[in-house]
Amino acid sequence: MSIHVILVDDEQDVEFIFQVHLRKWIKSNNIQFEFALSGNVALDILDSIKDDEPVIILSDINMPDMDGMELTRTVRSKHPDIPIFIVSAYNDQKHIDDALSNGVTEYFTKPVDFDGLKKSLIQVFPNLSVAC
Is the pTM of this model over 0.70? Predict the structure, then answer.
């Protein structure tokens, strides 16, 4: 069973960057990669996934309409076990503490350390191959 990775960011070019770095997992069907330009679109994608399928959300913080913290609180209220990684340009302790206190699993700053991100994904989903 593959893992649904929902990347949420209001900047479209971020999708391509993540697809490049996760391409081996995508090609091998270890993950199903989905991109959402907003928190509302991410919630629609999440609602379309079966409850027993593994999901992780990677979200920016600063987005119009619904920011990453509001998305986190909404997801936590319905799906408390879904891992949520924040991927943000904000590198200050206040944002990091706020994210972690709201139930974020991991916090990454941009530019993303994709080796670190992959290691964290493997920690959450040990069946992912390290070689990818």
Answer: yes
